[in-house]
Task: structure prediction
Amino acid sequence: MGERITLNHITKIEGHASLDLQIENGKLVRCDLGSIEGSRYFQALLKGRKYTDAPEITSRICGICSSAHGVCSVMAMENALGIVPSKQTLDLRELQTIGERIRSHATHLYFLALPDFLNFESAIEMAPHYKEEMARALRLVKLGNDLIALISGRIMHQISTTIGGFTHFPTQEELDDFKQRLVDAKDDILTTASLFATLKVPDIQSDTTFFCLTRKGEYAVSYGDVQVGDTIYKQNDYDKVIKEYHNEYSNANFVVIDGKSYYVGALARINNNFESLSDEAKLFMEEVDFTLPEFNPFMNNLSQAVELIHHRESGIAILSNLKIVNEDIVKPTSLHSGHGIAANEAPRGTLWHEYKLDDEGIITYANIVAPTTQALLNMQNDIAKLVQQMIDGGESKDSMVLEVEKLIRSYDPCFSCATHFLEVKWH
Amino acid sequence: MTKPRVGFYGLTGCAGCLLSVIFNEEELLDIIGAVDIVAFPFIKGENDNECELDIAFVEGTVVSNEDEEMILKIRKRAKVVVSLGACACIGCIPSEKMFLTKEEFDRLDYKKVSRISDCPLGPRPLHKVISVNVSIPGCPPDRDEIKTCIKDLLLGKTFRNYTDPVCMECKLNENGCLLDEGEICLGPITTGGCDAICPTKGLKCYGCRGLTNDVNFDEYFTLLESKGKSAREVKQIMETFMSIEIREALKGTKWENA
Result:
C-alpha cells in the first residue's frame, strides 16, 4: 500500500486549489494539482455583450490583478477596432500596471510568502514580532494602491481607463507628488529586496522554458513580441504556439508549448529581459550574487523583489517626462467586425485576451488565458520533482507538505484567474 | 475582555473583497489587534473551521456545491454573518450564468467533466441560501465602509446602509448627467453610498451596489427608449451586476421579456 497525501485547501494563495500526491515504494506515482474554484463562465457571459462592456466585466475576474485584465481587455478591443491610442495613454496605462505590480508583489512577498520562511503561520501572527517589516509591507502596498487609484480612479476595477484613452485625468501636481513618493520609497524597496536575498531556498531546478513579452530596449509590460526561450513570436500567433487542454481533476485548464510546460512570471521576465532592467536592479543582483540563467522556481520571490527595484525607477522615468493633457478619447471611426488579440504582463505572468466582434460591435467570441493557467503544469512538474527529491532524502511527510506549499506560493498562483477559462465550445 | 472571534471566508469569487479588507493599509494592524482572527484562509495557514464565531465576513457567490456546504456551516457557527461585496450581496457577474439559454449553457461542455459540480440551483448571493445579518455592497466594496462596519459591529451598533440612489451623490458632486450624453447610466436605479465614484470619473454606473428602493422602471426604460436605446440593450446593462434582482423586479411587467 502506498501513501496518499491530499491537500484539499491550500492556504495563503489566491483562490482555491488542491493537490493529490500518491507515493508507492518510494516513488511518486501521482501528482495532481488542480483548481477547485467554482466556475464563473466569464467567456460565455461575454458573448452577445457590447464591446465596451468587456473591460468592465473581465476586470472582475480577479481582485489582485484587475488592472492587468482591464488594460488587456482594452488593448484587445483597440486591436479589434483599429484604434491607435496616444503616447500619453500608453504612459498612463504603464503607470497603472506598475502600480498594480508593486501592490501585488508587496502583498505576495510579505503576506503570503514571507511567513513561511520566518516560521509563522501568517503575517497576522508575524506582525507583533516583525513590526518594522509589516509597516514597510503596508507602506509598499499603499504606494501601489495609490498609484493605481491615481491613474485608473480606484484601487481595484478601473474606472477611467477605457478603450481609446482615459475618461478622467490626474492633475500634474498629483503626478509630481507621486513621483516624489517613488523617489522616497527607495529604502523600503531596497530593504525588501535585501531581506528576500537572505532567505534560504531549497535547491530545485525547473526543467522549463521562460515565457514573457519582450520589446527592444524596454522591460516589457505590455505590447511587444513574445519570447519563449530564445525564440520570438508575434502576439497574433499565440494560439499556434500555446495549446490548452483539460484534466478532469482540475477546474482550470493546462497550457503547453509543443507538449511541454513553460514558466511565466517575474522569474521568466528577469531571465528573458535582464538586459532591460534598471541599473539599480542589475547592481542589486550583482551584489547578492543572483546570476542568470536561474531555473530555481523559489527564486521567483527574489525576482519579484528585483522588479520592485526596477519599477520604482521605470515609474520615476515615465513621470519625469509626463506633461498631462486632458486628451479626448480615440473613438472607432466606424463599428465593424473585427478580431483583436492582446497580451500584457500581469504580476504573475503573461495574460491573453482575444475577442471577435460582429459589425455592430457585439462580442461573438472571447478567449482569455490567464498566467496561472499557463503556470499550472510547470508548477505540478516542479512539485513532483521536489517531492521525489525529498522522498529520496528521507524527509518526513510534514516537512514535505510544508516545502510543497512554499513552492506553490513561490509561484504566486491566482486560482480565481485560472479557473474560468476552460474550453468553451463556441459552435 | 475576550476579543470577538472573527473569520474571513471566500466562496467562488475574485478575492477582491478580502483584499479590500487588507488594503486598509493604515488601519489594518489596528483591526488585527482589535479582534481574534480565527480563520482567514487567504492569508492564514492555520484556520479554525469548527469554532463558534462572533462575526463571519464572507465574500463570493454560492456557485458550487462546496460553496453551499461551506456557507451553511458558517451560518451555524456565526452569530453575525456579513455579506462582503457584490457577489455575496447580489450575485454580481457570476449569477448572470443563471440566465443563459439552454443552448448557450450547453456550449459550456466542460461542466460535465469537472469534479467541482455547480449547484443545481445556480449561482446565488448569500441571502438566497442563509439569513444574512449585515451587507456591505459594491464591486469592489468601499474600504471605508468596511472599516465603519467592523467598528460598528465591535461597538454593538447597527451598521446602517446608505439607501438613496447613486444620482443623489452624483448631483452633490456637481457632475453633468451621463444619461444626457446618451449613456445607459444606472445611477437612478442603483443604491449609492459610493460617492458616485464611477460617474464622477466618467464611467456610467453599472449598478454594482444593487437596486435602490422604489425604482420607477417604466420611467427609466421610457427615458432610455426616447434616447434611441432598445429595452433589450438597457436590460443587458442592468443584468451585468444585478441579474437576479432585475429578473425578480421586472417579473410580470411589460419589460420582463425585453
About this structure: The first helix of chain B runs from residue 16 to 22. The radius of gyration of chain B is 19 Å.
